[in-house]
Specification:
Elements: H1 5-28, E1 40-45, E2 50-54, E3 65-69, H2 87-93, E4 97-102, H3 117-135, E5 139-144, H4 146-157, E6 163-169, H5 185-198, H6 207-217, H7 219-231, H8 236-252, H9 259-271, H10 274-277, E7 280-282, E8 285-287, E9 296-301, H11 309-312, H12 315-318, E10 324-329, H13 340-357, E11 368-369, H14 382-388, H15 395-434, H16 443-453, E12 458-462, E13 465-468, H17 469-485, E14 493-497, H18 502-514, E15 517-520, H19 527-534, E16 538-541, H20 546-550, E17 555-558, E18 575-577, E19 602-608, E20 615-620, H21 621-634, E21 642-645, H22 652-665, E22 668-671, H23 677-687, E23 691-695, H24 699-705, E24 709-712, E25 722-725, E26 732-736, H25 740-749, E27 754-760, E28 767-770, E29 781-782, E30 789-795, E31 800-801, E32 818-823, E33 835-836, E34 844-854, E35 860-865, E36 870-872, E37 875-877, H26 879-887, E38 892-902, E39 905-914, H27 922-928, E40 940-943, H28 957-962, E41 969-976, E42 981-985, H29 987-994
Helix pairs in contact: 3-4, 5-9, 14-15, 15-21, 16-17, 16-18, 17-18, 21-22
């Protein structure tokens, strides 16, 4: 072998250079470089942040202003890590005035480890005010990763004031659409909830933990960078350009993460996905990204495993009122803001974006409007990742690994989500099964359980304010003390006539905690008759209903509105202001035990109907719990849900389904002051509403207003504007009484949300639910854990149950109309309408007031009430199928069906009102009723101008009947059985059918 002196010398020199550079790295943590940070001055120092102003000596007037926000775990130097080739350097050379929010390290800042998410949002908010005041102009707000989330949140919090545009880099919005590494959302959500409640608030996340955590996210790239550094350790000139960035990533760039802020992040934006759904809370104020209206530019890293592209693109749906653009780069999470990719592409594009915003330059082709993203939990494609990591991984291994990961995730995801639903449902069903007549269970008790379990968790949202479990529970206890001070004791019936508001819920819960009985009355109803019917001696009223309550002569307790409001009626012995009572001065009597209610005891009384059909419906604690847990199970309600209560409390749907289901499911409850479509559209986004409750035709007003439709105007004047549906967070509508046609309109306009229709009998424990929502108008099947049901043959003319040869009741065949019975529970009083010996000797059943049919699939369909069946000359005619059939006609707004007495029998008559801008023809009615048997079709159908509705939004048959009999004319049609068609009712035909008035 030939000896080469030069090679030996070269090797020795390389070894010495390696040793020298290695020693420098060991002593100083890195190589000494001549690269200097960009100059800045600290303009403002506050407890939460320091505000840096870069290049303060540049006083060029009229420059665009940018405020840059770092993520919590990364040092604010991220914006200057590449010095003159970094963010502030490039932007400054582009004529942009740069300001940076520096949160500092929680380890070195006063109270740093106690910071929560709201502290950081309010800090950015304060910094924007400072910069706007100093520069006299609006700012372009920019944020990296969670800093971008802060940018979105802060702009929404201040309703866009002072923000010209938002620019984000790898900032996720829709966590469900893009979980890091393709993990199933259901599993991640549960883990995040556990970590937030039990880990991060007790364990500080230090900078070293953050550094190791980020390096573990991509161990191959971390190992490769270290190996490359060691291999080039002899070549100082090759290492120096990247040395500042290397030191930033290896040690200098990381800061700790305060536990409360981490808990907020995990709860609000991972477990509950509130960046997407809306309703995240900043200092008791609910916020939604739907408030954003300024232009938005989101940088998307195609190979970003932290800010997944699908999650980042969620902003286009979360901010439906904003113009959203994107710039997609083949970069990872860090590469979007630092490194050669950021130097060559990111920051030049940001500069061009600001130039375009100022109107000076066209938008670069790399920036395009963000398109609607189809949600998927799959990670980036294997092909993209292979191309990007070709120098890092073996291509085959990477491709196969990612492909297998995608297959595994998509295969098991459905099983994981189903398992999650089962895990939530089983404890509720088990608890229902354990309830015995002597079990202590009540509304007040469930609220107290929530307060003990999670005192700081949100419970109510009302008037843009959030009330926690602890605050609501304390309010309930204070109301209890006030009620005790004025003589309210257990088992006393107390009327409640209040609008839907927190005070109403607190009153009902306080009466439950006290062991008294809440008699829920509709505001504006027949109060005097209801008081006489229920035997109440005391009313609790809000200020709005005080005058009508006091007019009854009953003692009135006023609650709600605070202690500074004025009342319409002067205080006296019969009018007591509970807000003036100091609860701390009320001594609790020895007999008081909180939440004493037993399952068998009466909890609520509902008053339904009007006039001579006014009825009192009695609900025990067991009956309420049955509906509460049944609703939570059927609707799969949990802590991620926010239930918007349109249904009033005095209606069974509001008390049993809305309030009961939300409390039992641990969901947030958003209270609506009234049915205002515009306010509904705003609050659905602001509160992050996922479930909306309804009664009867309540949703008709919202559908007519089309609050979630955006009008798109064509650039061509001859092409009319078109309406396109906007994204919304609603997944479910739950309630009772929705007509079939309105049901279909709801699912069309609010797709992909579905309708969950309930039927809950007051008599017995029957609860039906149409869980699948496939059959519009169907009441579904019995909810697990509720009473067993049977359908027995029934004669609607005589009102008797039909029996077989042995004398027992005959069960109905499929599609045969019969009376719905519920199996009576142990200890129930059968003296009030109960039945024994129905199918076997000694069995006990409670009949409902409704007639049903059961289809071949086992689903139940409401046919009529026993007392509203029309007794026509051809036999009984049922009203509900007529109503559902007519409501399915596009032109029909609302409808009622009733029996019009003529001689010894009655005619089946239907009145309809027409939707604005549409027209109803006789042929439309003829075609629609083909779905009914000829004997079940209405004899007369006529058009009325308007159909009044009750306080629960049920079309009022009585009000229509009071308007008089149908008159002959072009909008009144009679059913000609010979032609099998509806024809205009003439004077002659009217005389033949109706006789003379």
């Amino acid at each position: 072998m030939k000896f080469n002196v030069e090679s030996v010398v070269g090797s020795v020199q390389r070894l010495m250079a390696t040793a020298q550079n290695g020693l420098e790295v060991i002593r100083f943590g890195g190589l000494t470089t001549d690269v200097e940070s960009s100059p800045f001055e600290i303009v403002e120092r506050r407890r939460m942040y320091r505000l840096r102003h870069y290049f303060p000596d540049d006083t060029t007037p009229g420059r665009p202003v940018a405020v840059l926000v770092p993520p919590l775990m990364v040092n604010a130097d991220i914006w200057d890590v590449n010095a003159e080739d970094g963010a502030v350097g490039i932007l400054h050379r582009g004529g942009i005035d740069c300001w940076v929010v520096d949160f500092g390290s929680p380890a070195s800042e006063e109270g740093g480890w106690e910071r929560d998410l709201a502290d950081h949002v309010l800090a950015v908010n304060s910094a924007i005010d400072t910069v706007c005041d100093a520069t006299g102009s609006s700012v372009h707000l920019m944020g990296y990763s969670q800093g971008g989330m802060f940018a979105y949140q802060t702009t929404a919090y201040r309703f866009g004031k002072g923000v010209e545009s938002i620019v984000t880099f790898g900032s996720p919005v829709d966590v469900v659409a893009g979980m890091p590494f393709g993990l199933p959302y259901g599993m991640v959500s549960d883990v995040a909830e556990f970590l937030a409640d039990h880990v991060v608030t007790r364990l500080p996340i230090t900078d070293s933990m953050v550094r190791v955590g980020f390096q573990m996210l991509d161990p191959v790239k971390t190992a490769k960078s270290r190996i490359d550094f060691l291999r080039q350790l002899h070549d100082r000139e090759a290492l120096l350009p990247k040395e500042r960035q290397r030191r930033f990533l290896n040690s200098d760039g990381w800061v700790g993460y305060a536990g409360p802020a981490a808990a907020d992040l995990l709860k609000q934006f991972v477990a509950h996905n509130r960046m997407m759904l809306g309703g995240f809370v900043i200092r008791d104020q609910p916020i939604s990204l739907a408030e954003l209206k300024c232009p938005i530019l989101a940088f998307v890293g195609e190979v970003d495993d932290i800010g997944q592209p699908a999650a980042v693109r969620g902003i286009v749906r979360a901010a439906p009122h904003a113009e959203v653009y994107e710039a997609s780069l083949v970069a990872g999470h860090f590469g979007l803001v630092a490194g050669s990719m950021a130097t060559r592409h990111t920051w030049p594009l940001v500069r061009q974006w600001i130039d375009w915003m100022d109107g000076d330059q066209p938008l670069p082709p790399e920036i395009a409007p963000m398109t609607e993203h189809v949600a998927t939990n799959r990670p980036n494609s294997a092909a993209t990742r292979v191309v990007h990591t070709a120098a890092t991984m073996v291509e085959a291994g990477a491709g196969v690994g990612k492909a297998l990961e995608g297959i595994a995730n998509n295969t098991v995801r459905g099983s994981i989500e189903l398992a999650g639903e089962a895990a939530r449902a089983l404890p509720r069903l088990a608890r229902l099964g354990l309830i015995q007549p002597h079990t202590r269970i009540s509304l007040g008790r469930l609220v107290a359980e929530q307060a003990r379990r999670a005192p700081l968790r949100d419970l109510f949202l009302f008037d843009d304010r959030v009330h926690t479990n602890a605050a609501v529970n304390a309010r309930i206890d204070n109301v209890v003390r006030g009620l005790i001070s004025v003589g309210i004791r257990p088992a006393i019936r107390v009327g409640v006539v209040m609008e839907t508001r927190p005070s109403a819920l607190a009153t009902v819960a306080a009466l439950s905690r006290l062991g008294a009985v809440a008699v829920l009355l509709a505001p504006g109803s027949e109060l005097e008759r209801a008081i006489e019917l229920t035997g109440i001696k005391t009313l609790v009223s809000d200020p709005e209903n005080l005058r009508s309550a006091a007019a009854t002569g009953t003692r009135v307790l006023v609650l709600g509105g605070g202690d500074a409001r004025t009342l319409d009626v002067p205080l006296s012995e019969n009018v007591v202001d509970l807000e003036q009572i100091d609860p701390t001065q009320v001594e609790l009597p020895a007999w008081y035990r909180p939440d004493p209610g037993l399952a068998r005891e009466l909890a609520f009384v509902l008053v339904t109907g009007t006039g001579d059909r006014l009825e009192a419906k009695y609900i025990t604690n067991h009956r309420w719990a049955l509906s509460a847990f049944g609703t939570a199970t059927s609707a799969d309600l949990d802590r991620k849900d926010t239930v918007y209560c349109l249904a009033p409390l005095h209606h069974s749907s509001g008390l049993l389904v809305s309030l009961g289901g939300a409390i039992a499911g641990g969901s947030r409850i958003a209270l609506a002051r009234s049915l205002d479509p515009t306010r509904f559209g705003e609050e659905v986004h602001r509160y992050g509403v996922t479930v909306v409750t309804y009664t009867w035709t309540m949703l008709r007003d919202i559908l007519d207003a089309e609050v979630f439709s955006a009008v798109l105007r064509s650039p061509t004047p001859s092409v009319p504007p078109t309406a396109t549906p906007m994204w919304h967070p609603i997944r479910l509508f739950i309630g009772s009484g929705m007509p079939a046609g309105l049901w279909r309109r709801t699912t069309e306009q609010f797709a992909p949300a579905r309708v969950l229709e309930f039927y809950a009998s007051i008599e017995g424990d029957v609860v039906l639910a149409n869980v699948t929502g496939v059959k519009a108008g169907c009441k579904g099947r019995p909810v697990p854990g509720t009473a067993r049901v049977e359908l027995v043959a029934y004669d609607p003319v005589t009102g008797q149950i039909r029996t077989d040869a042995s004398g027992f009741a005959r069960r109905c065949a499929d599609n045969e109309v019969g009376l719905l019975l519920g199996k009576a529970t142990e200890g129930i009083d059968l003296s009030d309408g109960g039945l024994r010996g129905v199918f076997t000797a000694g069995d006990a059943w409670m009949p409902t007031e409704n007639l049903f049919r059961r289809d071949g699939d086992g689903d139940y369909w409401l046919v009529d009430r026993r007392d509203t069946v029309i007794h026509s000359a051809r036999g009984p005619v049922f009203t509900q199928p007529i109503v559902d059939t007519l409501n399915d006609i596009t032109a029909v707004d609302m409808e009622v069906a009733y029996g019009l007495p003529v001689g010894e029998h009655a005619l089946a008559v239907a009145a309809v009102s027409i939707r604005k801008g549409l027209r109803l023809e006789p042929k439309d009615v003829t075609e629609a009723v083909q779905a009914l048997d000829p004997d079940q079709r209405p004899d007369i159908v006529y058009v009325v101008g308007e159909i009044p509705r009750s306080s629960s939004y049920r079309p009022s048959t009585r009000a229509v009947q009071a308007q008089g009999r149908p008159r002959p004319g072009p909008e009144t049609w009679w059913y000609n059985r010979e032609s099998d068609a509806y024809e205009v009712l003439t004077e002659a035909e009217a005389t033949a059918l109706l006789g003379t008035d």
